[in-house]
Amino acid sequence: MSMTRFRERMVGRVGPVDRLPWTVQPRGLRAGDGIVRTAATTGGARPAVLDLDDLHVVVHGLDPVTDGWWATLTAGTVRGIAAVPVPVDCGSADILTTAVEGRRMHYRLLVVHGSHRYVVEGLKTVRGGIRRAWASTTTLHTVVVRLDPETTMPTEPEARARWLDAGGVDGQVVCAGVLRVRGILAQGLSMRGPVVPFLLGFVRRSVRP
After folding, report:
1. Which of 47, 71, 131, 188 could pair with 93 as two cysteines, CB 3.0-4.6 Å apart?
2. Is the full-model pTM beyond 0.85?
3. Which are the contacts of 7, defined by CB distance < 8 A and separation ≥ 6?
């Protein structure tokens, strides 16, 4: 089956969060709860830059339950968590799924640096309307969660991706903030597969949730 593929980059400023417990929830409609509220707590002090660079997004298809797209993140690089760029281990994206009000876009990715394991979670809230669609689909409220040191995860890549989707993993938020999509033109040029149906559906769901 042909799948839509594209590359995406999101960059923004984040600030430290002091010992906020966080449980990575199972992938689904409630997985991003609390992200926007937590990101707002650092609005007065965001000294660092978080860069989710060259995320490879593979869109597998529409979920009939949520009327949004189910996608995986197969590659990418995170800058700002460690002193050096760190590759994305695995991740997911639920694109324009239905929500209580409007729609949402939830991103989740796993980053491993030495003995430290991080989950980066981001949420875009889409309320609809032409004026608001651009801002809401390009703004990612983000938290970076350092998992508990005793956390164990599968060694096999596909099993690790399923483990990340299942959630139930505890940690602490170490920083949070707001990221913006960068390089829209480059993102558009990177698109492959059945692009036109995806774009038409994307616009319709963004403007009229």
Report:
1. 71
2. yes
3. 54, 55, 56, 57, 186, 187, 190
